[in-house]
Amino acid sequence: MTTNAMKQVPAVSRYSRYAAAIVLLAAACSDPTLPDFNNPQLPPSIPTKVALQEQVTGTLAGDREQHAFFILVLETMGRDAYRIDGADPRYIQQPLGQFSPGAFLVDFTWNSSYRTIRGSQALAAGAENSTALNAAEKSGAAGFARTIKGLEYIKLIETRGNLGIPIATGSGALDPISCQPKVLTYISALLDTAATNLAAGGTDFAFSLPAGFAGFTTPASFREFNQALAAKVHIYRGFQTFAASGTVDVAELNAALTALDASFYSTDPADFRVGVYHTYSTSSGDLLNGNYSRDVIRANPKVLNQADAGDRRLSKIQQDPAFQKALPDNSASSDIIFLNITGPTTPLPIMIDEQLVLMRAEALWGLNRDAEALALSNLVRQSSGGLAPRTLASFATRLDILREILKQKRYSLLFESGDRLVDYRMFGLYPELGMELNPPVPGPQVIPFPSSEANARNGELACQ
Amino acid sequence: MPRATSFFALLFLSVIVTSPAVAQRRITGRVTDQASGQPVSGAAIQVQGTPFGTSASDSGTFALQVPEGPIVLVVRRIGYSRQEIPISATETRADVSLRRDVLQLETLVTTGAATSVAKRNAANDVASVSAEQMSRVSAPSLENALAGRIAGAQVSANSGAPGGGNQVRLRGVTSVFGSADPLYVVDGVIVSNEVIQPGLNAITAAARTAMGSNASNQDNGVNRIADLNPNDIESLEVLKGASASAIYGSKAANGVIIIKTKQGATGSATGYPAVDVVQRFGTRSLSGKYGARRFTLDEARQYGATIGMSQADVDANFNSCGGFCDFEEQLFGEHPFNYETSVSVRGGLSQTSYFASGFNGYDGGVQKNTGYRKQSVRLNLTQLIRPGLTLTVNNNLVRTLTSRGVSNNDNVNVTPYFVFATTPSWFDMRPTGGVYPVTPIAISNVFQDRDLIRSPEEVYRLISSASAAYSAFTGDRQSLTFKLDGGVDRFNQQDNIVSPRILYFEPNDGLPGTVTSLSGNVLRANANFSVIHEFRPGSWTATTSAGLQREISQQRSTNIVTRDVLLGQENINRGAATEVYADRQEVRGLALFGQEEFLGMDERLLATVGARAERSTVNGDVDKFYFFPKASLSFRMPGLLGIFDEFKPRVAFGQSGNQPLYIQKYTPGIFTTYTGQNAVQPGLIQGNPTIRPERETELEGGVDASLWNQRASIALTFYQKTIRDLILHFVTAPSLGYQVDIRNGGTIRNRGTEMALALTPISSERFDWLSRVTFARNVGIVTALPPGVTAFNVERDASGQRVAFGSGYGIGRLEVGKRVTQIIATDSVGGTVQEIQKGDAAPDFTMGFANDFSFGKLKLTSLIDWSRGGDLVNITMDVYDAFGLSPGLADGGLNRAKRNDQLGVSQYVFDASFVKLRELTLSYALPSGFTNRFFRGASSSRIEFSGRNLVTWSDYPGVDPEVSNFGSQQIARFIDLAPYPPSRTFYFTIAVGY
Question: Percent of chain A, pLDDT > 70?
Answer without folding.
Answer: 92
